[in-house]
Amino acid sequence: MGYEWDFAVVFRNSDLLLLGLVNTLKVTGLALLFGVPLGLLLALLRLYGNRAVRLPVGFVIEFLRTTPPIAQLFWFFFAMPILIGVEIDPFRASVLTFSLQSSAFFAEVFRGGIQSIDSGQWEAAKAIGMNRNQTLGRIILPQAVKRMIPAFLERAIELMKTTTLVSTISYADLLYQANSIAQSTYRTIEVFTVAAAMYFVVILACSIAVRRLEIRLARSGETIVN
Amino acid sequence: MKEVLRIEGLHKSFAELEVLKGIDLSVDKGETVVLLGASGSGKSTLLRCVNFMEIPTSGRIHLEGKAIGSARNGRIAYGERELTQLRSRVGMVFQHFNLFPHMTALENVMEGPRTVLKCDASECRRRGEKYLDKVGLGWKADAYPAQLSGGQQQRIAIARALAMEPEIMLFDEATSALDPELVGEVLETMKELAEEGMTMLIVTHELGFAYTVADKVLFLSEGSILEQGTPAEVLTYPRQDATKNFLRGHNMFRLPEPQID
């Protein structure tokens, strides 16, 4: 064997990798920023909309969940300019794709969380004269969101890893940068080892932060009765 | 006496099943009315129709002399806003407490005044503290429901309903989910309310409580009021066989009175 590891070239290009990481975080962050509220909206429409709304919303959610994200990405990036004449750069296509794609998953997380809340909570809120929006906003969602945190984190991690697909439309994310450094330096193993480590560190840090948050929220515990 | 609640010809069906078959009932201000009956007799459904947790199939409900809903083409239509507004004037206490687990005791009690009545912060706080004190749990203001006993949770649920300063309070088997040793504290709280002149409509299986506290007892059987009167009339000298059987089942085993010599 006797492979000679040489990380020096990787560190010489560390600014490129860091730029890639920033770009990855930008796409992931924006996809979360748009995807979570959109997911909530889709979940509420699917749960409480009238039939004319529920059906199409359900279809959109299932469509986004069942088609490969890379197909969606190509569709927005390549098909939009041809079909409706809108030029879209790789960054915007990426944010658009992953916002929509993750909103479908978040919609299902929200739906599950909302439906997991005991119907007695709805009744109690109704009995003191709260309307549906007040009940959702003050009673149901605060409890549901707490229960959804692990599923949210899972989706967010999955999202960050899935955004590596944006390198296929030449958006300079971490994986794209790693690939180009590898091609110019021939140090593929080292470059991808460092890139993987960067994903690992960021995701682990997020996991730990969320775990801390969970523990803090758990202190205002839930009733054992009910 | 001023009439707070009047129910006329109330029917309620769930699909094919007719649960209430024409109930007429009037509750005066300050009166405590207890509903008794076997399970399935419709007493909980009757209670839940009063604050429109269930929408009556037919019949009319009047609160403070005003009919709820508007008649249209021979049917009564209920607006969602009207019902929400009505529910803020009718307090309800549930078998399973249903406190909001993410809020402290005080926040639970303040929630109605804050969100529904839109009281300012100091008024919310005043009401929250006042009604927590009323149920004897001012010292638990900052506790979360999970940290409280079942009896304490139920008393906070009572305070939460009282904080809306309702015209009538409904109790739906408020002590049925409690361990036996915790039943007393909740009944005590309810008795105090009755003595202070709160108008109350109570579904319960606690016959001793009904005997002591009720002004009027109603016995429901198969969706109709079979018998009604003072506690002594219904509980001590029932006329109907169904009432007698029901009471016999409840009084089969009793502790002997202590011997005094």
From TrEMBL, chain A:
Its main location: membrane. The keyword Transmembrane helix applies. Belongs to the binding-protein-dependent transport system permease family. HisMQ subfamily. One of its GO terms (cellular component) is ATP-binding cassette (ABC) transporter complex. PROSITE patterns: ABC_TM1. This is Glutamate/aspartate import permease protein GltK. One of its GO terms (molecular function) is transmembrane transporter activity. Keywords: Amino-acid transport, Cell membrane, Membrane, Transmembrane, Transmembrane helix, Transport. The complex is composed of two ATP-binding proteins (GltL), two transmembrane proteins (GltJ and GltK) and a solute-binding protein (GltI). Part of the ABC transporter complex GltIJKL involved in glutamate and aspartate uptake. Probably responsible for the translocation of the substrate across the membrane. Part of the binding-protein-dependent transport system for glutamine; probably responsible for the translocation of the substrate across the membrane. It comes from Nitratireductor arenosus. PANTHER family: GLUTAMINE TRANSPORT SYSTEM PERMEASE PROTEIN GLNP, MEMBRANE COMPONENT OF AMINO ACID ABC TRANSPORTER. InterPro entries: AA_ABC_transptr_permease_3TM, ArtM/GltK/GlnP/TcyL/YhdX-like, MetI-like, MetI-like_sf.
Automatic annotation (TrEMBL), chain B:
Coiled coil: none annotated. Gene3D superfamilies: P-loop containing nucleotide triphosphate hydrolases (3.40.50.300). Residues 5-247 form the ABC transporter domain. PANTHER family: AMINO ACID IMPORT ATP-BINDING PROTEIN, L-CYSTINE IMPORT ATP-BINDING PROTEIN TCYN. It comes from Nitratireductor arenosus. The lineage of its organism: Bacteria, Pseudomonadati, Pseudomonadota, Alphaproteobacteria, Hyphomicrobiales. Keywords: ATP-binding, Cell membrane, Membrane, Nucleotide-binding, Transport. One of its GO terms (molecular function) is ABC-type amino acid transporter activity. This is ATP-binding cassette domain-containing protein.
